[in-house]
Amino acid sequence: MQLTTDRSNRGAARxxxxxxxxxxxxxxxxxxxxxxxxxxxxxxxxxxGWPAVQETFFSWAAFxxxxxxxxxxxxxxxxxxxxxxxxxLVLGLVIALCRITSAAxxxxxxxxxxxxxxxxxxxxxxxxxxxxxxxxxxxxxxGVPTSPVLLGGLALALSYSAYVAEVYRAGIDSIHPxxxxxxxxxxxxxxxxxxxxxxxxxxxxxxxxxxxxxxxLQKDVALVSVLGPLEAFRVAQISASSNFNYTxxxxxxxxxxxxxxxxxxxxxxxxxxxxxxxxxxxVR
Amino acid sequence: xxxxxxxxxxxxxxAFGDNQVLKGVDLTLTEHNAVALIGxxxxxxxxxxxxxxxxxxxxxxxxxxxGEVITDPSCNLVEARRRLGFVFQxxxxxxxxxxxxxxxxxxxxxxxxxxxxxxxxxxxxLKRFGLDKRADAYPDTLSxxxxxxxxxxxxxxxxPRALLLxxxxxxxDPELVGExxxxxxxxxxxxxxxxxxxxxxxxxxxxxxxxxxxxxGRIAERGDPEQVLGDPQQPETQKFLRRxxxxxxx
Lengths: 284, 250
Ligand SMILES: Nc1ncnc2c1ncn2[C@@H]1O[C@H](COP(=O)(O)OP(=O)(O)OP(=O)(O)O)[C@@H](O)[C@H]1O
Ligand SMILES: [Mg+2]
Fold this sequence. Notes:
Chain A is mainly alpha-helical.
């Protein structure tokens, strides 16, 4: 076998080969993306119904017309999911803690927490929104809010807290019992070892699944529209039916993507980093 | 010389389901002394130490700390644990806290010491154990030997009445065992009261005032290290030591 390089510059040669390979890789992926995506677009655009679809779904004029209004509606969505996320973070933790209490005197609380999570995880979110949005005001209790935004937010918070509580609980369960033994051996109380040792580790571990739940919450705020508030989807719907053009719905979809995609990328990066750490770190 | 008992174990029994691990253990640890617990794997050394630190609830018998029955249901177990230090086989450091934070957690939260004082004392201890440069590191980034030294410092930081050491070198690479055992010998020389479960017979010989051989849920033989390890009287002890000898671990 003949060597094309002598020992002294084999490092440089290897580097050059690697660069060539990655350049070739980038070229191949660019070309194949263009071919696949271009092919799909061509397929859609050349279909018989495309001119009609383009007019009703992708009309630039209709997009420009409706966008400001849809955006204003979307601002309500943003405010709503931020508030609901904060409530869910706290309420979910409280419910998780209720579920893990072992004190006999607190048995009813544990039972309630179990019933709560079963109930709100088992019923479709849209049904919860209907029942709370229309049922709660019908009781005509004094002090119960009647604003559909508040009621919708409440329904979402109740529904998502049930999921998030389970996420927290799984995180707490995943902390090895030796950590608790270690905390107790230092003379910490049960509550202190939970607060200072178990929870900080558990919460760190469940950040990715929590973000995942938040991605679905950020689009589920659109469900509140069934109660009537003018959020992005509802605005788009109204605009669409009054102009017989569905483009405003596309505008709304773009706006939802603007908040869910960045969060998905943050989540990807977090998991990639964690994967690296797990690969290097010792497993105990 | 009168010897003050620090820990007294009186007829302690413990079963896990059908598995009767301790069948009545009697043991006294006096001030400034070290007792080495030896015995086959699964003989209940860890269980006994955990029972003493009230991490495991005993079935019958008593454990006394400075004359007080700490296994009595009316006794405040958190308060009793504060007077004892425990070092685990697997270190069990808190991975989300730095070395310094691991060390000051007990003093601050269990003993209510001011943070400045706790930090100061932690610094002194870490320095003595050659760990002051790693005070801001996280446990994951330390070697096994360093982690176990941190665990020792963490147990010492609460100024315990006695230390319970559970096979603290068993999960270390052989070349790291020495640096940890050295420290225990040093602590002994300073008068620390210790109960030490161990598989290292030469270490038991060096540091212990008394060796107790645990077998079948009881202390089968006890006495001076030279006598128990060099000239055992009980057949079980002889058998155990012969097996260690054959495995080249004596
Ligand atoms: N939490 C537990 N639940 C059930 N069984 C247990 C528990 N802890 C210990 N055991 C059992 O008790 C027995 C004694 O275990 P222990 O860990 O005390 O032995 P050991 O002498 O420390 O052994 P080693 O030298 O391997 O550490 C074993 O049979 C073990 O399976
Ligand atoms: Mg053990």
